[in-house]
Protein backbone atom coordinates (compact mmCIF):
# COMPACT_ATOMS: atom_id res chain seq x y z
CA UNK A 1 0.00 0.00 0.00
CA UNK A 2 1.31 3.42 -0.90
CA UNK A 3 1.21 5.52 2.25
CA UNK A 4 0.32 8.92 0.83
CA UNK A 5 -2.81 9.67 -1.14
CA UNK A 6 -1.51 10.65 -4.60
CA UNK A 7 -3.78 13.73 -4.55
CA UNK A 8 -1.59 15.17 -1.77
CA UNK A 9 1.73 14.92 -3.61
CA UNK A 10 1.24 18.05 -5.75
CA UNK A 11 1.07 20.16 -2.58
CA UNK A 12 4.52 18.92 -1.54
CA UNK A 13 5.96 19.25 -5.04
CA UNK A 14 4.75 22.85 -5.24
CA UNK A 15 6.19 23.57 -1.78
CA UNK A 16 9.57 22.20 -2.88
CA UNK A 17 9.57 24.32 -6.03
CA UNK A 18 8.51 27.43 -4.09
CA UNK A 19 10.86 26.90 -1.14
CA UNK A 20 12.57 30.31 -1.51
CA UNK A 21 9.28 32.15 -1.96
CA UNK A 22 7.74 30.45 1.09
CA UNK A 23 10.84 31.07 3.19
CA UNK A 24 10.82 34.78 2.26
CA UNK A 25 7.16 35.12 3.29
CA UNK A 26 7.65 33.25 6.56
CA UNK A 27 10.73 35.32 7.42
CA UNK A 28 8.78 38.52 6.73
CA UNK A 29 5.91 37.32 8.94
CA UNK A 30 8.33 36.38 11.70
CA UNK A 31 10.00 39.81 11.66
CA UNK A 32 6.68 41.66 11.70
CA UNK A 33 3.78 39.36 12.63
CA UNK A 34 0.38 40.77 11.66
CA UNK A 35 -2.07 41.05 14.56
CA UNK A 36 -4.46 38.67 12.83
CA UNK A 37 -1.83 36.02 12.01
CA UNK A 38 -3.06 33.44 14.55
CA UNK A 39 -6.71 33.82 13.50
CA UNK A 40 -5.77 33.68 9.82
CA UNK A 41 -3.59 30.59 10.18
CA UNK A 42 -6.17 28.84 12.38
CA UNK A 43 -8.86 29.40 9.74
CA UNK A 44 -6.51 28.13 7.02
CA UNK A 45 -5.66 25.13 9.25
CA UNK A 46 -9.35 24.21 9.53
CA UNK A 47 -9.79 24.57 5.77
CA UNK A 48 -6.69 22.52 4.93
CA UNK A 49 -7.57 19.70 7.30
CA UNK A 50 -11.11 19.56 5.95
CA UNK A 51 -9.47 18.50 2.65
CA UNK A 52 -6.52 16.46 3.89
CA UNK A 53 -6.85 13.33 6.03
CA UNK A 54 -3.73 12.49 8.03
CA UNK A 55 -4.56 8.79 7.80
CA UNK A 56 -4.28 9.03 4.01
CA UNK A 57 -0.85 10.65 4.30
CA UNK A 58 1.30 9.89 7.36
CA UNK A 59 4.27 11.53 5.65
CA UNK A 60 5.34 13.13 8.93
CA UNK A 61 5.54 9.71 10.60
CA UNK A 62 7.11 8.12 7.53
CA UNK A 63 9.89 10.69 7.09
CA UNK A 64 10.73 12.41 10.38
CA UNK A 65 11.20 11.73 14.06
CA UNK A 66 9.69 13.71 16.90
CA UNK A 67 11.83 14.92 19.77
CA UNK A 68 11.11 13.02 22.97
CA UNK A 69 10.90 14.74 26.34
CA UNK A 70 11.41 12.89 29.59
CA UNK A 71 7.62 12.87 30.10
CA UNK A 72 7.13 11.42 26.62
CA UNK A 73 9.59 8.63 27.37
CA UNK A 74 7.92 7.84 30.70
CA UNK A 75 4.42 7.87 29.17
CA UNK A 76 5.40 5.64 26.23
CA UNK A 77 7.40 3.25 28.39
CA UNK A 78 4.43 2.88 30.76
CA UNK A 79 2.09 2.37 27.77
CA UNK A 80 4.38 -0.35 26.40
CA UNK A 81 4.91 -1.82 29.90
CA UNK A 82 8.64 -1.13 29.76
CA UNK A 83 11.07 0.70 31.96
CA UNK A 84 12.09 4.11 30.55
CA UNK A 85 15.71 2.99 30.20
CA UNK A 86 14.64 -0.04 28.18
CA UNK A 87 12.46 2.15 25.97
CA UNK A 88 15.40 4.47 25.30
CA UNK A 89 17.74 1.57 24.59
CA UNK A 90 15.30 -0.14 22.22
CA UNK A 91 13.90 2.84 20.33
CA UNK A 92 15.91 6.05 20.70
CA UNK A 93 19.23 7.73 20.00
CA UNK A 94 20.53 11.16 20.94
CA UNK A 95 20.81 13.50 17.94
CA UNK A 96 23.38 16.23 17.26
CA UNK A 97 21.26 18.71 19.25
CA UNK A 98 21.19 16.45 22.31
CA UNK A 99 17.56 15.38 21.87
CA UNK A 100 16.16 11.87 22.01
CA UNK A 101 14.82 10.86 18.58
CA UNK A 102 14.23 7.70 16.56
CA UNK A 103 17.40 6.56 14.79
CA UNK A 104 15.59 6.30 11.45
CA UNK A 105 12.25 6.78 9.75
CA UNK A 106 9.57 5.62 9.51
CA UNK A 107 8.34 5.70 13.10
CA UNK A 108 8.42 2.18 14.51
CA UNK A 109 4.84 2.65 15.76
CA UNK A 110 3.40 3.55 12.34
CA UNK A 111 1.28 0.74 10.98
CA UNK A 112 0.85 -0.23 7.33
CA UNK A 113 -2.64 1.32 7.59
CA UNK A 114 -1.09 4.67 8.69
CA UNK A 115 -2.49 4.27 12.20
CA UNK A 116 -0.26 4.90 15.20
CA UNK A 117 -0.07 1.92 17.54
CA UNK A 118 0.75 4.19 20.51
CA UNK A 119 -1.59 7.05 19.61
CA UNK A 120 -2.95 7.52 23.14
CA UNK A 121 0.60 7.80 24.51
CA UNK A 122 2.26 9.54 21.55
CA UNK A 123 4.93 12.21 22.18
CA UNK A 124 3.94 15.84 22.68
CA UNK A 125 5.67 16.74 19.40
CA UNK A 126 3.31 14.38 17.57
CA UNK A 127 0.28 15.74 19.42
CA UNK A 128 1.15 19.31 18.40
CA UNK A 129 2.19 18.58 14.80
CA UNK A 130 2.05 20.44 12.42
CA UNK A 131 1.83 23.41 14.83
CA UNK A 132 -0.53 25.39 12.60
CA UNK A 133 -3.30 25.58 15.20
CA UNK A 134 -1.14 26.87 18.05
CA UNK A 135 -1.21 30.26 19.71
CA UNK A 136 1.64 32.64 18.90
CA UNK A 137 2.07 30.97 15.52
CA UNK A 138 4.86 33.40 14.61
CA UNK A 139 7.08 31.47 17.03
CA UNK A 140 6.70 28.34 14.87
CA UNK A 141 7.49 29.91 11.51
CA UNK A 142 10.94 28.28 11.28
CA UNK A 143 9.56 24.77 11.68
CA UNK A 144 6.63 25.71 9.43
CA UNK A 145 9.09 26.32 6.60
CA UNK A 146 10.43 22.77 6.90
CA UNK A 147 6.93 21.34 7.39
CA UNK A 148 5.76 22.71 4.02
CA UNK A 149 7.86 19.98 2.43
CA UNK A 150 6.59 17.25 4.79
CA UNK A 151 2.90 17.96 5.36
CA UNK A 152 0.57 18.70 2.44
CA UNK A 153 -1.76 20.61 4.77
CA UNK A 154 1.05 22.96 5.82
CA UNK A 155 2.03 23.40 2.19
CA UNK A 156 -1.55 24.38 1.41
CA UNK A 157 -1.71 26.76 4.41
CA UNK A 158 1.51 28.55 3.48
CA UNK A 159 0.44 28.74 -0.15
CA UNK A 160 -2.75 30.49 0.99
CA UNK A 161 -0.76 32.85 3.25
CA UNK A 162 0.78 34.33 0.10
CA UNK A 163 -2.72 35.44 -0.92
CA UNK A 164 -3.55 36.88 2.51
CA UNK A 165 -0.20 38.61 3.04
CA UNK A 166 1.09 39.40 -0.46
Can you describe what's shown?
The structure is a single chain. The protein is mainly α and 166 residues long. The protein has 2 domains: 6-56 and 130-164, no CATH class; 67-128, no CATH class. It is 51% helix and 2% strand. It has helices at residues 9-17, 19-31, 37-51, 59-63, 70-79, 84-91, 124-128, 141-147, 152-164; strands at residues 93-94, 100-101. A hairpin with a 5-residue loop joins β1 (93-94) and β2 (100-101).
What's the SSE blueprint?
Layout: H1 9-17, H2 19-31, H3 37-51, H4 59-63, H5 70-79, H6 84-91, E1 93-94, E2 100-101, H7 124-128, H8 141-147, H9 152-164
Antiparallel strand pairs: 1-2
Helix pairs in contact: 1-9, 2-8, 3-9, 5-6
Q: Report the average pLDDT across residues.
A: 95
- How are strands sequenced across the largest beta sheet? 1-2
Q: What is the beta-strand fraction? A: under 5%
Give the number of domains.
2
Given helix and strand content, the structural type is mainly alpha
Number of helices: 9
End-to-end Cα distance, whole Å, is 39 Å
Number of strands: 2
Query: What letter string, H or E per element, gives the SSE order?
Result: HHHHHHEEHHH
Rg over C-alpha atoms, rounded to the nearest angstrom: 17 Å
Amino acid sequence: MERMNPDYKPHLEKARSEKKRHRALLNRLKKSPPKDLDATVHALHEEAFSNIDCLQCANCCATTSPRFTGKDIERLARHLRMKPGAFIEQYLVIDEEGDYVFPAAPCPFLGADNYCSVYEARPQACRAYPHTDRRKFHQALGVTDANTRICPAVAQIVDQLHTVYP
